[in-house]
Target: TrmH family RNA methyltransferase
Amino acid sequence: MDLIESVQNNQVKEWKKLLTRKGRKKQSKYVIEGEHLVEEAIRAKAAIETILIREDKWSGYLDYDADRSVMISEEVSALLTDTVTDQGIFAVVHMKEEQQSITGNRPVLLLDKIQDPGNLGTLIRSADAAGFEGVIIGKGSVDLYNPKALRSAQGSHFHLPVIHDELLHWIEAFKKQGIEVYGTALDERAESYHEVSSKDAFALIVGNEGNGVDPEILKQTTKNLYIPIKGKAESLNVAIAASVLMFSLYK
Model:
């Protein structure tokens, strides 16, 4: 097996570009890092182009697809990692075409201008764990394929549809189907989530970490919900709040 040793290698330079949003968009590919994510991609039959394995880890992954695997040096591994201590295994994956495959038969999570990649990944992971049908990411949100977002999602983006689209379009479509749309806010229309009974299908919208859900979107919701705070904390992190609501409203 040949070793890709130099960080000046042309292929390495192309892989490095995938750590930027511009590079990912241009190549329609992204990089995942770590044994768990690579194995999730293999199980999901994702369109893996190449598996990159650090030379000192090579013997531990002999059962992986040899035709798609390449050996890289520690220097190349260090160039591609987004963590302090990398696991020495990566995969280059083709982005799948986003299909409008969300029906509304089960709950759907809508994200409005989420900025932190860790929050985005955690929201997707929680939606997956709670049994939601899919996630719709509105304009102005951080990139799904940001390395930190992928790491936080822990492979959940392979398990359910995650699409980028205009939220108002989906809100209108859900309401036409008779599906309730819940915003999250502290306004005169908001009510405690304790007052809402669980349902088999609904849409839940959570918003930007600093500003919440856009007021224009909140005008279109069926109800706006809030989580009562019993202690002295002013608020909850958006991913934590959304997780509480998802598991409480869908049982």
